[in-house]
C-alpha cells in the first residue's frame, strides 16, 4: 500500500564477511517529510536472501534506506538506495477555501492544496461542486485539472441564479482517488430577470398582410429576481423594413398578448420580448414570423418588346420592386391586342415554375401592326397593377396583289395601265412604290421594268401609260406593290396594241414577162 516499502538484499560475498554474520541493521528516513531516522535490527541472519517490509510510512514520500551487516566485531559498510512510497488519496481537505460573489451570476472561489503531510500523492485535479438551495437547482460539477502545480481552468462559478444561497464544495484528487470535502455557503445578490418570457408564439391567421399577433407567458417565477414592472417588444424586418422599433407594455402581469401593426407585406420579422424588474431588462425571447402575402403593389419593371421578325415579338421584363412584391410571384398575366387590325384580345398566363422566367415570345402576329401589350404580376392572393406599352411589328412585303388591275390599248403603240392599292390590311408596311413589268408575247419580248413612286397618300386610281410598243402585239403586264422590305404579290393582265398601217413596202420577189401577174409578199 501507500505506507509500505518491501526491501530485499543478498548477504555480502562470503570471503568478505570476515567472521560470523550475527545481524543486519536497516536505517530509513523520509527525504521530503518524515525525516526522523528509524532503525530496525534483524537477528538470526542466514546466508540466503533477506527481506523486510517497512510499514507506517508516509504516502508518496521518498525514503533513504541503508542496510548493513554485522559480525561480533562490528558493523560493515552500508548498502544505500532510495524509494518512493505509492500514492494514495489525500487525507485532508484543501486549505484556505473562500468564495466571493462578484456579480449576481458569478462567484469566484480560491483555495490552497492540503498540507504536505496529507497530500497523499500528486494532486492531479480538484472537484468543485455547487448547488442553489432555494431554487432546488441541480448539482453542478467542475473538474479543475492541475498541470505543473497550477490550475489551468479558473475556478469561477458562472451562470448562477440571482438572489440564491449556493452550497459550494471542493476536494483534492490524486491518481488514486479523491480526498475529503470542504464546503461553504455564498449568497448571490439580486439582479434583472435571468430567464426570458416563456412560450413565445406568433400568428398571422385571420390577419391582414401587415399585422402579426404575439403571445407569451411570464418568466419562471424563480427567475424573475425581483418585481416584474413591464415588457418590451422589439421588432424589425429581416429582408426589408429593417428599422428597429420598440413598444413598452405596462401592467405586465395581466397583459401577455399584443398585435403588431403597420408592417410590410410578406416580410420576415425578428421579434424579441423581454421582461423588466426595477433593476433592469432581462434576456430576450426571440421568434421570427413572416407576414401574410398580398397582391403586388407595383408593376413589373423594365417591360420591353423587341421585334424578332414581322410576326414575332420578344417580351422581356423584370420582377416588381422587391419591397412591393408582397409575396411569392406565382405567375405573370400577359395580354396583347392589335390596334388597327388583329384586334382580338388574347391572354397568356405564365406560371413561375422557373423563378427566372421573365420573357416570352408572341408569335403569329400580323405584320407592321401596332399592338397594345399589358403585363401584371400575381401572388397566391391575386394580381397586382398593370404595366403596358405599344409596339409595332416589323414591316414585311405586301401579302396581296394590287386590286383592279386593267389594261387598255390607247393606240397601236401605247397602252394604259390602271390599278388600285392592295387592301390596307395586306400592305404589311408603308407602300413606297409600284413595280410595273411588261413584255411582248409575239414580238418585242424583252422584259422591261418601270418603278413608279407613290406620291402623297393617294394609293388608289394609279395609272401609267406605256409607250413605244409594237403595233398589234399582245403584251403581258405585271404590277406589284413595294415596301421597304421588298415586292409583294403581283397582279397580271394581257392586252394587244391596236392595228396600224403597214410600216414597210411589199418585198418584190420576181417578175416574168410571160406571166400576167406579179408575185410579192
Written account of the structure:
The model has no long low-confidence stretch (mean pLDDT 89). The protein is mainly β and 521 residues long. The radius of gyration is 58 Å and the shape is elongated. The N and C termini lie far apart (162 Å). Strand 15 (198-203) and strand 16 form a beta hairpin. The chain has strands spanning 5-9, 23-30, 38-43, 50-54, 62-70, 79-84, 95-103, 106-112, 125-132, 140-147, 150-151, 156-157, 165-173, 182-187, 198-203, 212-217, 230-237, 245-249, 257-260, 268-276, 281-290, 301-309, 312-318, 331-338, 346-351, 359-362, 370-378, 387-392, 403-409, 415-420, 433-440, 448-453, 462-466, 474-482, 487-496, 508-510, 519-520.
What secondary-structure arrangement, pairings included, does this model have?
Blueprint: E1 5-9, E2 23-30, E3 38-43, E4 50-54, E5 62-70, E6 79-84, E7 95-103, E8 106-112, E9 125-132, E10 140-147, E11 150-151, E12 156-157, E13 165-173, E14 182-187, E15 198-203, E16 212-217, E17 230-237, E18 245-249, E19 257-260, E20 268-276, E21 281-290, E22 301-309, E23 312-318, E24 331-338, E25 346-351, E26 359-362, E27 370-378, E28 387-392, E29 403-409, E30 415-420, E31 433-440, E32 448-453, E33 462-466, E34 474-482, E35 487-496, E36 508-510, E37 519-520
Antiparallel strand pairs: 1-4, 2-3, 2-5, 5-6, 7-8, 8-12, 9-10, 9-13, 10-11, 13-14, 15-16, 16-19, 17-18, 17-20, 20-21, 22-23, 23-26, 24-25, 24-27, 27-28, 29-30, 30-33, 31-32, 31-34, 34-35, 36-37
